[in-house]
Amino acid sequence: YCKKGLIVEHANLASALSYHRIRHHEGQWCDTLKRYAMLSDGDTDEFDKSTFPLASSLEGVGVENLPIWTAVVTPAIHYSMGGLAVDGAAQVLNERGKSIPGLFACGETTGGIHGANRLAGNSLLECIVYGRVAGERAASKRHYRRRPLKMTEFVPLALRETQPLDGTDLTVCRFNLPSAWDVLDFRVGQYVAVKVGDSQDETATNAVRLYSPISRPNDRGVLELLVKSSNKNAKPGRASVWLNSLRAGSTVAVSGPLGGLPFDVLDSKVNHLVLIAGGVGISAMIQIIRAVYHQGGPKTIDLLYATTNIGQVAFRDILESKSMRSGGENSPHLRLSYFLESNSADDSYGSTHSEVSDVRWYKGWITQDHLANILPAPGSPGLRIVICGPPPMCKAVKDALVNLHFPSDSLYSYM
Description:
The chain is α/β, with parallel strands linked by helices.
């Protein structure tokens, strides 16, 4: 501070006053220092100050002749707490939480990196780390391709971030596409293959797992996957354990698009969708629901979602929010049916009551009777049914639909 001139040493009080061009009331300055020298801890001055750590060093000394250090104190901006909202790729978000293509930000122009406050000493780190991320993603425009993934070979994608879903044993893994301008350009309902292991070793005989993205096929620059988390209540498989062990920046080998629905759920002739999901099979349904809502138009969606308990309902807030807002003349209408293995009293997040009128609750598995009561009549025009979940559940639901005489060309099961 002395080298920068923020603190200046003076031979005595008169020299300090002259340096700061204070030409009057020298006697008052001297009297103030003398009063300070007479105070001790526990005393109170006219400003209600009661701690005087340096007073004893001035006692009995001619304060006007002592060396003195002075510093000018002025208000200054130390750190800007607010700013633009950004995601893990430094892309600026709009009011709906969606990234704005081609707009990046870092440092004190952004807010929320550390929550409502910040970690002390992280200002430079924040601008340097996110400055590099923002620069790399902005420069990635030169890598733009119409289809960044390939069906016949694996492409390495860098993990951007992971987001555990509160209360569930599920985690969202977000991967950067090669360019921030890339889109998957999949058909709704298609999925990707992920190589479990070293994504750089093309000769390794690693296991491959299939995942339905929860991101929409035309979301720019990102691939979002839903995987099981590693916790005391979950028993994730090899792929989930490996994905959960990755850190931001790690690469994963991905190929696609693969498979897909035998019908177009966005076709205006398809006016009623029945989506039947179990566990992490909700991934495929989230992708479909997001795509339908993005397109808009009148379409009824019945989501039958089976899981262990109400706390395990992934994206519950989002689903029920869409259900509350749906049903307009030109918007989809989402109706929710939850099937829970248990509905214990300690499930504080939602009992069998909801403010949303189009939410129904059932205890136990999805049965043929449930399907008969919830679904429209077999052969209804514009009806399509999609099933995704554990293989035993998918088989039981398919058998029940066949028994109820639903046409085979109106339904599709991922398993």
